[in-house]
Write a structure and sequence with these properties.
12 helices; MetI-like fold
């Protein structure tokens, strides 16, 4: 039975719940349960993790294949509208994920121009959304990396008779760490996004349910432990990627 103090004290401000369990105990128990789910290789946890990694890695790979060559074309050539184009890509770096989801949804839904392909609520739809999110980041940051290279390097390479592809390779070697950081920034942008993934994937269990969409779903259902477990995995992935980049930088300094 609740005491008069408990009845009169607002529930949200109480340091414990109606069973007498403190909020610290609740969070600690949820954290322990989350670790157990990870260690036991819970099926839902593994499925969500694999979906996220598969789609995000594929999207950032495609964004890199498209973005790096475009960044060199823009950075190394002078043309009308170059500044406007760079400004466009810089602006697209802050593009809201739900806006991307909305535009892609309208394009691939049954009433859209690409509706005949049946892409909605599939991993391919999620990949398209994440590709659109990652590409501007990789292009904009890669352009900055290329422009940050000492211009004398390019002039020297050309004066020594280097061909265009050899000049590009020289610039890549000089700006490799900055470009790697650009790719990782693109990966970080999409691995943790939830807006377009929810709209385009439909959050279908075992098919399009990613880490972030599962966290949103499970938390809304009150399954805090599962959401926390997925959150720990998401942070671990982000930390691991940055550790790898940092180790590569230290080996080459």
């Amino acid at each position: 039975m609740l005491s008069s103090f408990q009845k009169n004290f607002p529930a949200k401000a109480r340091p414990y719940n109606d069973t007498g369990e403190t909020r610290v105990d609740y969070l600690l128990q949820a954290f322990i349960t989350a670790l157990k789910l990870i260690i036991s290789l819970d099926t839902d946890v593994i499925q969500c993790t694999m979906v996220s990694l598969k789609i995000s890695c594929s999207a950032v790979l495609l964004a890199t294949i498209v973005g790096i060559p475009l960044s060199f074309l823009i950075a190394l050539n002078e043309f009308t509208g170059k500044r406007a184009l760079i400004t466009f890509f810089n602006t697209m770096m802050a593009l809201p994920t739900v806006v991307v989801g909305l535009f892609v949804f309208s394009a691939i839904s049954r009433q859209g121009p690409l509706g005949v392909f049946g892409l909605l609520f599939t991993p391919t739809a999620m990949l398209i959304g994440q590709f659109i999110l990652a590409t501007p980041i990789i292009i904009a940051l890669s352009i900055s990396a290329i422009r940050g290279v000492d211009p004398r390097i390019r002039v020297t390479a050309l004066s020594l008779g280097a061909r265009s592809h050899q000049v590009v390779m020289t610039l890549i070697l000089e700006a490799r760490f900055a470009m790697m950081a650009a790719i990782i920034a693109g990966f970080g942008r999409i691995i943790g996004e939830v807006g377009s993934a929810m709209m385009l994937g439909g959050n279908i269990r075992g098919y399009t349910r990613s880490i972030t969409t599962a966290i949103a779903l499970e938390t809304s259902k009150g399954e805090f432990s599962l959401g926390l477990a997925l959150g720990i995995i998401l942070l671990t992935v982000a930390l691991s990627v940055n550790i790898v980049l940092r180790s590569l930088q230290q080996q080459n300094t």
